[in-house]
Amino acid sequence: MNIDKLKQKILSKISQEELEKKVKEKIEENSGLLGEESAVMLVAQELGIEITYGDEEEYDFTISDIADGQKNVEVTGKIIEISPAKDFNRKDGSTGKLASITIGDNTGITRLTLWNDKTDLIEGLKKGDVVKIENAFSRKWNDKVELNSGSELSIDKLKKYDESRYPILKENYKISELMPNLSGTINAEVVAAYPKKEFSRKDGTKGQLKSLILKDDTGSIRGTLWNELADFEVKKGDIAEVSGYVKQGYSGLEISVDNIGIVEESAKEEKPVEKMNISELADFDGEYVTISGNVANISGSREVQFSDRTAEVQDMYLNDGTGMVKIAFWGANRNILNDLKEGDYLNVSNCKLRTYTDNTGEKRADLTYNYMSDLKKDETASEKIVEKITAIGDILSGSSDNADVTVIGMVTNAYPVNEFSRSNGGTGKVRNIVLEDSTGSIRMALWDSDAEIEISEGDVVKLIHGYAKESGEYMDLSTGRFGRIEVNPEGISIKSPRNYIAELEDGISTEISGTVVDYRKQDVILSLCPNCRKRLNLVDNKYMCEVCGEVAPNELLVSNLTIDDGTGVINCRLYGNNVEKVTELSKNKLKEMNLDALSNVLGKDVLFYGTPSFRNDELEFAVKRVNFVDASKELEVLKQH
């Protein structure tokens, strides 16, 4: 391939300055493993320029193109590792042969396994040779796609090839040069050395591991020493030569260590890991930290969808008196939470810390419990937590600690979910509900995933460790960072107080039951000004507001029904979806039928929950929730009343 001719093709589309910039970016994106020629080729591909190679090898198929279950795979690659043939014994007593080579190009690395007579194909080959493999087949093994030798497998060493297509092989690598599935050696400083840990294998035997964080001037990587190698003495500050197999972990590349030696011992005396105050954590992004505190809250398990998998996570919140922090437990680590409860005092070590900026602009920290972490419960410091339920009336009066409230209330209104656009271009969701207990009612905002929880009017909702804040003239509840909600929690029920109409008192919310005996002869649609909320007048088919002039009306469903329970009668005011519920008709149908819809309600037995208040010297009932009478349940209520 003539790289100068390829550059000329590129320069017919972009300037020399743009080309140099793009080439530099490609080299930096690939951590310096790409040469200039390879970077130029990538730029050409992005611009849709055909690349010709003359007599060199074909480039139609790369390692990244190999998928599970393919047959007759044809691919070229540089030999990164070669394992000579070894004999093995089959179950029938016969002997077989096994060998493998690991090959790579600039798109990835894979291993080819050869069986029996096919092991002869690697004779004379060595690390660094570029080979063409034909008639292999692929399969998935340990979550990696590998090649196997088919009956027609062939391996040919190439004499002519484009060196820029293949990784540079080194005796020693910089950390930034490492790639998944690569076996290599690095020289790096040990910036963290964690204690040896034991684990149980599936067969019941015990294994052990030790984890290190290694760093050089190009980056950092986690290293794991397994079994006997975990006994190797290494400490923070040592300069180590580490050889092993590189793989993709949950939080970046990891190296499974095959061999380790100390090049230079640390002159510093290693100090034990110090506990940190939670209030200090935001200054240590990316570090592994140790903290202690009481369990303030344990969330339910939830699923998180990634691009390639679904994972389950459960959160625990720890409070040490200086602040509170969330610790995420992923996958099997969630089982650790089974034996914990609120109030337990824990020592938690070696958790990975990440920081982020919340929607108020404040920098915050979260922790992740991983296989290097450890958790111990201190029974002597644990305390029994007596759950404190905050009355809604105390929140409204300002006599509660609104930064941490646990509230139980019945849902009197549940509004639809609304979507909105975020400043970053994403989409959010919000839903409002109204909770009420015997002391008052309050609005609660449910955001994003909480907005999708099934909640209906009449449900009991428990907000645990939420917070309350002023929103204009009102107080609102929210789950915040640490709160969670439970719907109809076991063992908790709220019964609406029941009163006869003759017993009603001004301002005291209650439930009444009766029969609809009359209705006010007014339109079910009330047309209001969208600006000042005044009632509109229809003049020459135009809606006119005495303050704002001609406007497009806001239409509100409204009706006044009179009910009789045998002790008295009372006028009941209903708005919005409560009008739809009592008539069992949609808004559009109500607009069409108008007063005829209300005549159909006459004689219905209803349950109204709401608040009585004086209006024009008469007691009226503002309805918050509508239900119909269940005869069997009503008998039980009447017996108790």
From TrEMBL:
One of its GO terms (molecular function) is DNA binding. Residues 73-147, 202-261 form the OB domain. GO terms for biological process: double-strand break repair via homologous recombination; response to ionizing radiation. InterPro entries: NA-bd_OB-fold (IPR012340), NA-bd_OB_tRNA (IPR004365), SOSS-B (IPR051231). Keywords: ATP-binding, DNA-binding, Helicase, Hydrolase, Nucleotide-binding. NCBIfam families: PRK12366.1-3, PRK12366.1-5. This is Nucleic acid binding OB-fold tRNA/helicase-type.
